[in-house]
Amino acid sequence: MNRSVLISGCSGGGKSTLLRELAARGYAIVEEPGRRIVSQELEGDGAALPWVDMVAFARRAIEMATADHSAAREQPGWTFFDRGLIDATAALQYLTGEPVLEKLSAAHRYHPTVFLTPPWPEIYTTDPERRHGFDEAVAEYDRLAAVYPTLGYNVVMLPKIAVADRADFILDCLPRETR
Q1: 4-174 maps to which CATH number?
Q2: What is the Cβ-side half-sphere exposure of residue 150, based on CA atoms within 13 angstroms?
Q3: pLDDT 10s digit of each residue in the chain, 179 long?
Q4: Which of 176, 147, 179 is nearest to 9 (CA)?
Q5: 167 vs 99: CA distance, rounded Å
Q6: Domain boundary assignment for the chain
């Protein structure tokens, strides 16, 4: 059984906070490639920052997400991803028109159920790593919400509830025999 679970959706929708909650419960997590890339780029030359070169940023995210996905196969239980390969390939395909989404996503499948955080303006904030506005976040969310079903994933919308309740919701949606 595939135990690599994607949590995707709207920027600023609570994904990172949710992953911290799941980690506190003992589950393996994979932090968002985008945030890790921004952190690395801010310490270096900044050539692949999303506000400098979004295509270079997306290509780096694809490389990182592919490595993350491969490493997660070694984990004994559930591994929860804050975004992943599909988000990165969807971004690259949107930006360049390169038909990479179906090829890469077919080679690197996640658990069939993907959880999406909806736009949540009450908790949305920008920060040094998230400089885009809420409207851009919603547009990205709309693209992702349309892409996942076309790739054969069952999309489950996360309710706008407290983080502990969101974690319980996700765990209740997954098969119990593998938890």
Answers
A1: 3.40.50.300
A2: 10
A3: 789 999 998 777 788 899 999 999 999 999 988 778 888 888 888 788 777 788 888 888 899 899 999 888 888 889 999 988 999 899 899 989 988 888 877 778 999 999 999 876 666 566 666 556 677 777 888 989 999 999 999 999 999 999 999 999 999 999 875 44
A4: 147
A5: 34
A6: 4-174
- The DSSP letter of residue 159 is P
What one-letter code names the amino acid at 177? E
Amino acid identity for residue 111 in this structure: H
Residue type, 133: G
Question: Amino acid identity of 99?
Answer: P
Write down the residue that tokens 């491969």 correspond to. 70
Pairing mode, strands 4-9 and 28-30:
unpaired
